[in-house]
Amino acid sequence: MNILAIDTSNQVMGVAIYKDGQVLAEYTTNMKRNHSIGLMPAIDHIMKETDMKPDQLDRIAVAKGPGSYTGVRIGLSTAKTMAWTLNIPIVALSSLELVAYNGFGFAKYICPFFDARRGLVYTGLYEQTDSHLAVRKEEQNISFEAWLGQLNEMEESILFLSQDVELHRSMIVSILGEKAVFPSVDQFHLPKAGILASLAADRDHELTHEITPNYLRLVEAEANWLKEQERKRNE
User: Fold this and answer.
1) Is residue 227 situated within a structural domain?
2) Which pTM does this prediction carry?
3) Residues 34 and 47 in one domain
4) 164: exposed, middle or buried (C-beta count within 10 Å: 0-12, 13-18, 19+)?
């Protein structure tokens, strides 16, 4: 099976090519820049490096969020366009799950998170089983302090993974103490398109037109529109 994986859901942009059980190539950038500019050149580069032709692809894998609204849209729209053009299926996976898999084999409980500003985070809790990660606490957009309070009720250690970990390390440690575990290598905090591709090989695909972004909350414009409609109904 040949898979092209795309992740533009956060600051890290990644693409990877997977073929017959192994990741052939992976391209990653971690810079504050517009992914709409760099994505297609990255895809073109990695396809040429692996001698992969578009018509040889069997499916597209894409990170569907949560994360940057713009980033999520860029990845999904690119994946959908390619899948529709090539008439191949899409597998869309959670951006948080991808980060969580960086900790597979290192801890029983793994908490990936992305900073969502104003004291909020996108997060969830994963539990390692023999062969995969299972969702222990559903992904949500929540006050990080409140979330850490929930995690502190657990007795086990928890591995925290996030490119935003330094923004919140002191709060994590102050609430969880020694139960909070962090990787010694910063690279474990970054999502990997190779993991996305590998996971997608064993997941069910979705109909292209049914795939939706996983924002975990309404974008501000939509939220304001709903509030305005509610106000008008109450007049």
Assistant:
1) no
2) 0.89
3) yes
4) middle
